[in-house]
Input
Amino acid sequence: MVIAVSEPNVGQREYKNLAHCIDSGWVSAKGSFVTEFEKRVAESMGSTAAGFATCSGTTALHLSLHCVGVKSGDLVICPGFSFIATANAIAHAGATPWFFDIDSSNWCLDVEKLEAALEQELVKDTSGVWVRKDCGRPLSAIMPVYTLGNTPDLQKILNLARKYDLKIVADAACAVGSTHLGEKLARYADLSCLSFNGNKLVTTGCGGMIVGGRSDNEEKQPIELARHVGETARVLPGYDHDRVGYNYRMSNIEAAVGCAQLDRLDEFLERKQQIRDFYKKVLEDLDGMNPFPDINENDSCNWLSGVVIENSSEMEIEDIKSLFRGASVQLMPFWKPLHLQPPFVEAPCQDLSVTEQLWTQIFALPCSTGITDEQLKIVADLLRSFSGTRSK
Ligand SMILES: Cc1ncc(COP(=O)(O)O)c(C=O)c1O
Output
């Protein structure tokens, strides 16, 4: 049996809820589990309005950009270090990602660098819109990514958004259960988007959610617009549709799994923290090998734990991979930077030195919430054994 990096932890509760869906016949996009899931996730993020559950995190991001008004030809800021879905969603909205570097202490947007670059690169055009000086393209939004469940300096991002009239759509795909300086996350963005893919802390199989935030109380609530447009923009009771819509809804079956998972969120968060602490302790004794970063104690949901192998040669990387492979233990490379991906090589980017230096050195380690202590010890022994060969 392989010890996997991140497996779903599903069991009897999920089974019982699924049986309820089948027995009742509520298997499609309406149903009590969808309503319950939307309410509970939004509450956990600190949003006053219920969320809108979608069929994936990617569709949540795309729909959110659309609903905050991002248009074809706009630029949207995001980190160069993320899963491809971040940039894909921006492209789906007809916009172009503008890549910025990350901070090595949390692997999220480096807000200091961002602030300096915006000061330098932006100017107001004659109609009062902030545009890039060199190409005249408007900048309409910023998409911070809460990498691993960590957050960047969100107050500074709010300040920048106010200064440059930017909407904030947060890619909170990995951040269910995270907080920022003890505060729930929703209020730091116009809309925040979660993923409930199978490798996430809470899963619905495939799925996502948009939750409202700082503009919840404005007249035109983007979360309500997202619900409308994401459900084909239908005006009931007939088949009237008042704009081009999307069919991005989550099914009751998926939400049934999600509700059962939420019952166990505290248990999952506790286990993730134990795993993080375990690897931290193991890696403390190994030269040139560091744990994935986390932010202020108890803020991160610690979605993934892993190892950063400093100054690693290609040969060393091959050695550790084959060591783990031989022991049937998964070791996963992490995200390849977005500006190096063929669809986005032409996208504008600022200095990405931290991103470029980091990405080849990082590997996710087995950290499923269902991992046993014995399995963790097997992984720790492999790390020690690799470190031993390195120091020779
Ligand atoms: C940072 C980030 N953004 C977006 C997504 C997209 O989510 P999904 O796979 O549910 O479409 C993911 C998930 O895999 C992710 O890790």
